[in-house]
From TrEMBL:
This is CN hydrolase domain-containing protein. SUPFAM superfamilies: Carbon-nitrogen hydrolase. InterPro entries: C-N_Hydrolase_sf. It comes from Flavobacterium suzhouense.
Length: 279
């Protein structure tokens, strides 16, 4: 049986590209590493001490320095919360990858602290023009795998990193299979992502969560609700702003209205050709 809601915790860190990766360097500067880790610790404290505890915490693209991955897992274990976080560029010789980690504490979804966790990585398929220019002469590794995460009573989750949000084939796969789509990004074209969030929420018929860097802001939680005033559940606009917030998104009610033949009461009509698929 699905839960009524899933609580998504946003930690919108401020990683300024020109400071984190000065011209000619490809790993996050020490100054940026220390700042972002302080923000991540503050974000976890804020979220864990709030009225609503998150079931999943999302952290923007390229926000976690490599030297702090073990510390991040310890934070996930102590809070017993799934974490989906962008990792600093992976560089091996001329090979470069943009990856994210998914951390699942062994006692999740119970609130008891965990001692151990499982984790895996997923990567970016399509790189931005800025990344191609930054790593000119390097081999940008593509990761075309499309993941669907089964979160049990919280529904199925699709994931993407930044410009993969524009990958039409990804949405063909996800349509009818997921309840939530989570995008982590370091994106300056915030309005385009906002408009795309509404379009994908309607076409894939799912909740859309975008956790963008605080350098540019505009993290979003969008649901395909019938009433327009109820679709944007969270939007944090403005550049240079750190923020942490827990947002509740529908699960069971959306799942019911994804079924063919069910009258749409709380959500917009299912898109043409929509068919709920089972694994």
């Amino acid at each position: 049986m699905l839960r009524d809601f899933i609580n998504i915790g946003f930690i919108q860190t401020v990683v300024e590209g020109s400071v984190a990766w000065p011209a000619g360097t490809f790993q996050m500067s020490v100054e940026s590493e220390e700042r972002v880790w302080a923000e991540l610790k503050k974000g976890f404290i804020d979220l864990m001490n709030g009225y609503e505890r998150p079931n999943i915490i999302v952290i923007p693209e390229l926000s976690v320095p490599h030297g702090y991955e073990m510390d991040l897992r310890r934070l996930a274990n102590s809070s017993s919360t799934i974490v989906i976080a962008g990792i600093d560029f992976f560089i091996n010789g001329k090979d470069v990858a943009n990856r994210a980690t998914v951390i699942v504490p062994d006692k999740w979804p119970l609130s008891n602290p965990s001692r151990t966790c499982s984790h895996f990585y997923f990567g970016k398929t399509f790189y931005s023009n800025e990344e191609e220019e930054m790593f000119k002469g390097s081999n940008l590794l593509q990761h075309p795998e499309i993941y669907i995460l089964s979160a049990g009573e919280f529904g199925n989750i699709g994931v993407a990193i930044c410009s993969d949000f524009f990958d039409i084939e990804r949405f063909v796969v996800y349509k009818g299979r997921i309840h939530h789509l989570i995008i982590i990004s370091h994106n300056k074209d915030t309005d385009s992502y906002y408009f795309l969030a509404e379009a994908i929420a309607r076409l894939v018929y799912c909740n859309v969560i975008i956790c963008n860097t605080g350098e540019f802001g505009d993290s979003i939680a969008f649901t395909p609700a019938k009433d327009s005033w109820n679709r944007i559940l969270y939007r944090h606009k403005g550049p240079g702003l750190f923020s942490s917030q827990v947002v509740s998104l529908p699960v069971d009610s959306l799942d019911k209205e994804q079924d063919k033949g069910i009258k749409n009461v709380l959500f917009k009509s299912r898109p043409p050709g929509y068919e709920k698929k089972k694994f």
